[in-house]
Design goal:
Layout: E1 3-4, E2 7-8, E3 16-20, E4 33-35, E5 39-46, E6 56-64, E7 67-72, H1 78-87, E8 98-105, E9 111-127, E10 139-145, E11 148-151
Antiparallel strand pairs: 1-2, 3-8, 4-7, 5-6, 7-10, 8-9, 9-10, 9-11
Length: 152
């Protein structure tokens, strides 16, 4: 983590990039938001005989929430062709799960934190409402399931 002259400073959350390894081009790394970088334990409750004040909660396995990405819709995107190849055609042979790199960047555009998402595949793709009475861009949302992530 970088340090400032006065000591440690927390990084900003608006300077980042998302890379789908082996898919897409330079336009496919620009996203408006990333959410779902969450890991928690699934637990199992155990009731001990004679102890009525509490239950033991035991960790079972790690659980990762879905990754959600938002961006302005692109009309020509290799990423969305991959998504639709899985969602529409159910083609997991030619459209395999991929690794995704999410990098938090500093003011010099250098990665200061890196999440490596393993075996991601699209679960849902949605497009914002089209409304003639509003003056806004079309936003696409991509929800992905994955096995786990590493933090570097």
């Amino acid at each position: 983590m970088a340090t400032a002259p006065g000591g440690y400073y927390p990084p900003v959350g608006f300077h980042f990039k998302v890379e789908f390894v082996g898919i897409g081009n330079d336009n496919d790394i620009r996203f408006q938001s990333v959410s779902g970088l969450t890991v928690e334990y699934d637990t199992e409750s155990f009731k001990e005989g004679g102890e009525n004040r509490f239950e033991h909660k035991l960790p079972v396995r790690s659980k990762y929430s879905d990754l959600s990405l938002k961006r302005g819709m692109l009309t020509d995107s290799k990423l969305i062709k991959w998504v639709l190849g899985i969602l529409h055609d159910r083609d997991f042979i030619n459209n395999k799960p991929v690794m995704i790199n999410v990098q938090l960047l500093n003011e010099k555009h250098e990665a200061i934190k890196h999440w490596e998402i393993i075996d991601a595949w699209p679960k849902k793709w949605s497009v914002s409402d089209l409304n003639a009475q509003e003056n806004g861009i079309v936003v696409e949302t991509l929800d992905l399931a994955y096995k786990y992530f590493n933090v570097k």
